[in-house]
Amino acid sequence: MNNTDIVKQGLKKRYAREKRFQLYGKLAVMVGFIFLTLLIVDITVKAMPAFSVTELKLDIKLDRESLGLPETGAVSDDMLSAINYGAVIKQALRDSFPEMTSRKEKKQLYALISSGAEFSLAAKLRADPGLVGQESIDIWFRADDDIDTYYKLETRTSRVSDRQVDMIEQLQQNERIRIAFNSTFFSASDSREPEQAGIRGAIVGSFWTLLVTLLVSLPVGVAAAIYLEEFAPQNRFTDFIEININNLAAVPSIVFGLLGLAVFINFFGMPRSAPLIGGLVLSLMTLPTIIIASRAALKSVPPSIKEAALGIGASKMQVVFHHTLPLAMPGILTGSIIGMAQALGETAPLLMIGMVAFIVDVPGGILDSATVLPVQIYLWSDSPERAFTALTAATILVLLGFLAVMNAIAIYLRKRFERRW
């Protein structure tokens, strides 16, 4: 065998190894994509029931006698507040099923309707007091979560009795039961009852928390990166700082939660569960990511631009803020958005500072008690009611949507303003 044959055999083996390596890489990408697709499909299938809700139509008597109001005179807000709306709804249920006479049957009958039905009726009358005095009107009310789960999924549980199933079938025959869009999921806050629970409070809490995180971490992180990259002398002290910044990027997030608990709450006495504390804690966690990304963006600016600016008489400060920083800004923004997306998905540090509390009201500012989307997912995933499973999956989809949008913005900024040298 001559040298040419030996070389050809070697090339053949090398090409074969390269093809196998490419095949392994493609298989790895395909397997990862398949698992990701299965995960998203599974979450989506579980989340679909959360976007709809079962409603029952009842014939509500709104005459003054049924409402317990005087026969004449104007209806004031105090009079509307004194009405026993629960009794009015129970009477409508008994009128719809007059055969339910025993105490046990009535208890099962009342369990068809959500406990929030009386608040819905009260809000409807306050919005339109002119309804008072009418003989009766048909109003749609949300069903209880167990009835809702059974009707949508047709899955029996021990909490839905045979008698209740008969009632549901009777309502279906009379066209007094339907599935409607669950607007409460986006307009309400947390609740102990799944059919009344929503994510508005968590979304607003996430907004305030991320706003504090952005206002603190972005200017501090960019300023630190500019100093370390452009002005700081190369000595042991700056080397020590750089090493610790890189180490902080790998510290578990719960450590930052412990730091926030010890410093911001125990030492400074700041309010627990507030977006201000959550934002400060997430700022500490996000700072290393922003500093590292900003330094890499500043370092990517060609030295020739800096030298040209210095050559025409610009000062060091002018070179940095008039030339280097504007050219590095796309990379800085990309790193900052990725850091914010990381902060949006964090749960552990916020649990340590009390943002795991049950919050019913929508926070109005950074000092109000609040929760965030990841913590809301954590709370609902631990709830015993089966309907919370769909709400948990739906909230995960919403969170993934926000993360996808933030990463898409980062990719767009990088592609839009990227400079190739």
What does this structure look like?
This protein is mainly alpha-helical. The chain has 2 domains: 53-180, no CATH class; 200-417, MetI-like fold. It has 18 helices and 3 strands. Strands 2-1-3 form a 3-stranded antiparallel β-sheet. The longest helix is centred in the first third of the chain and has 45 residues, at 3-47. It starts with a helix and ends with a helix.
Present the secondary structure layout:
Blueprint: H1 3-47, E1 52-60, H2 64-67, H3 77-81, H4 85-96, H5 103-110, H6 117-127, E2 137-142, H7 145-153, H8 162-173, E3 177-181, H9 184-187, H10 200-231, H11 236-248, H12 253-267, H13 275-299, H14 303-311, H15 316-344, H16 348-352, H17 373-381, H18 387-417
Antiparallel strand pairs: 1-2, 1-3
Short characterization:
It is built from 18 helices and 3 strands. It is mainly alpha-helical and 421 residues long.
Key phrases:
single chain, 421 residues, mainly alpha, MetI-like fold, 2 domains, three-stranded antiparallel sheet, 18 helices, elongated
CATH architecture of the largest domain: Orthogonal Bundle
Sheet with most strands: strand arrangement: 2-1-3
Q: For the CA atoms, what is the radius of gyration?
A: 31 Å
Look at the structure and name the CATH superfamily of the largest domain.
Answer: MetI-like
Judged by helices, strands and strand pairing, the structural class is mainly alpha
Number of helices: 18
By CATH reckoning, the class of the largest domain would read Mainly Alpha
In the CATH hierarchy, the third-tier topology of the largest domain is known as: MetI-like fold
Q: What share of the residues lie within helices?
A: 55-70%
Distance between the termini: 50 Å
Number of strands: 3
* Element-by-element helix/strand order: HEHHHHHEHHEHHHHHHHHHH
Strand content range: under 5%
Supply the number of structural domains. Answer: 2
Low-confidence stretches: none
Oligomer: single chain
Shape field: elongated
Mean pLDDT: 87
What does the largest sheet look like?
Answer: 3 strands, antiparallel
